[in-house]
């Protein structure tokens, strides 16, 4: 039987014995397995592919192929393509959302791709600056068939957008959140979950490849009112030396999925995945040397 242990601070290997390129991932439960889409960093920070993997236990990963590969224009090999997230829309098709950028991070757009299968291949459609705003690190959320895009805009803050019905553009700003210490900017690498009638939003400070104390806030509605931001992990721990990518519902709780970026060797950046609890309106994240999803109630 395969070892089902998750060891934070190490890389995952796939069924081929290679480092699983699960960086900056999106994660969805599809049937009886999880599917993950990650940044393939084997060529460094420039785009080669979004890799797709499947798993039954979040510990053992099967490579399903490249869901999206480099082409011309927005997804050329000279571009930055990050934070792949995937949602299924009402017609059954799958939409991939991407942070599309130039090498100097001046392009700042969100890209869209579509596929009939969650594993891909995805066909790239187009990019936009949502409602004219900058868009860098992104996240997605879905509720009642309605899709939402979370997008960091350096000029205005962290936006929660409602997506158009086909999920290929945004149609309205639902809320814009900013940092308390620096109200002119928001948080990046956002992710959002709903729990017991409240919404919980997570994000990272804007410190490049350096780790920081990632934060969370909550509200009774997506429009707000949002509470003050608070650290996810013990203050000063730099979120156990990681940056949040996704907080995913798993079993009776959640899993914090983060990256410990190694800019000198991005492809080998370790994964920091930990059980996360939301109780009495508070977020609890504690270090574990090793754990399994069975221990987490899944």
Q: Give helix and strand order, one letter per element, not per position.
A: EEEEEEEEEEEEEEEEHEEEE
Write out the strand line-up for the largest beta sheet, numbering strands in chain order: 1-2-3-4
* Global mean pLDDT: 96
Cα-atom Rg, whole angstroms?
A: 18 Å
Number of distinct beta strands: 20
Count of all domains: 1
Keywords for this structure?
single chain; 298 residues; Tachylectin-2, Chain A; four-stranded antiparallel sheet; 20 strands; 1% helix; globular
Give the gist of this structure.
It is built from one helix and 20 strands.
Explain what you see:
This protein has a single domain (23-285), classed as Glycosyl hydrolase domain, family 43 (Tachylectin-2, Chain A, 5 Propeller), CATH 2.115.10.20. Helix content is 1%, strand content 47%. The protein contains 1 helix and 20 strands. Strands 1-2-3-4 form a 4-stranded antiparallel beta sheet, with no helix packed on it. A 4-stranded antiparallel beta sheet has the order 5-6-7-8, with no helix packed on it. The chain has a 4-stranded antiparallel beta sheet with strand order 9-10-11-12, with no helix packed on it. A hairpin with a 2-residue loop joins strand 13 and strand 14. The two termini are 18 Å apart. The relative contact order is 0.13.
């Amino acid at each position: 039987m395969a070892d089902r242990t998750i060891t934070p601070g190490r890389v995952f290997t796939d069924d081929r014995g290679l480092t699983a390129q699960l960086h900056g991932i999106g994660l969805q439960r599809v049937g009886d397995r999880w599917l993950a889409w990650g940044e393939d960093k084997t060529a460094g920070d420039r785009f080669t592919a979004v890799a797709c993997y499947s798993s039954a236990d979040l510990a053992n990963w099967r490579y399903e192929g490249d869901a999206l590969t480099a082409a011309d224009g927005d997804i050329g090999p000279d571009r930055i393509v990050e934070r792949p997230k995937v949602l299924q829309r009402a017609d059954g098709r799958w939409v991939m959302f991407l942070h599309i950028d130039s090498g100097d991070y001046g392009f700042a757009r969100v890209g869209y791709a579509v596929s009939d299968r969650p594993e891909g291949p995805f066909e790239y459609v187009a990019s936009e600056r949502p409602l004219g705003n900058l868009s860098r690190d992104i996240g997605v959320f879905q509720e009642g068939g309605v899709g939402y895009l979370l997008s960091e805009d350096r000029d205005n803050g962290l936006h929660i957008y409602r997506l158009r019905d086909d999920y290929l553009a945004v149609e309205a700003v639902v809320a814009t959140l900013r940092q308390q210490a620096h109200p002119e900017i928001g948080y990046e690498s956002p992710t959002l979950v709903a729990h017991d009638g409240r919404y919980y939003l997570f994000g990272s400070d804007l410190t490049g490849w350096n780790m920081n104390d990632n934060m969370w806030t909550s509200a009774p509605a997506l429009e707000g009112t949002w509470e003050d931001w608070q650290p996810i992990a013990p203050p000063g721990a730099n979120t156990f030396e990681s940056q949040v990518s996704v907080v995913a519902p798993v079993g009776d709780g959640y899993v914090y999925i983060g990256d410990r970026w190694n800019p000198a060797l991005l492809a080998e950046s370790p994964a920091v995945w930990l059980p996360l609890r939301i109780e009495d309106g508070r977020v609890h994240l504690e270090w574990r040397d090793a754990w399994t999803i069975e221990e987490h109630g899944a």
